[in-house]
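Here is a complete protein record:
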Amino acid sequence: MKKVDQSIIDQGYGDCTRACIASLLELELDAVPNFIRFGTRYARTMWAFLKSLDYHPIGTGFPQGLEYPNGNVLRETPNIDGFVMASVPSKIFENTGHSVIIDLNGLVVHDPNPNKAWQDINVMESGDLQHWMMIEKQEKLDEGRKT
């Protein structure tokens, strides 16, 4: 993982998700669209971007014992080198989510906000993990189908 910080810190318009995707895929920030600018097409644009790079977005997982419909829990979920993008409450803006990268135990290994307010906090233990995004490289998905 290449740690990339967000460049826009603005309630409802920040690019923390963009920075997390860039970090996970080891890209420069400018190589990733700022998905928030696509409004209601935010998720569709992000999925299309990931697929264009041969990554398969599987969906979102939920913490505290709740399972995604396919049965995945955080430690069993598709991930990129043991890391997943997760959503936590913003420590700057009220009623706003913030994207970070966590390991499979729930520890924030990269907070893209330059203030690093979430860095090294285990969001599973603190109860702050809202959800995480499951992404898998297409070739890994294809290998699983062959077995």
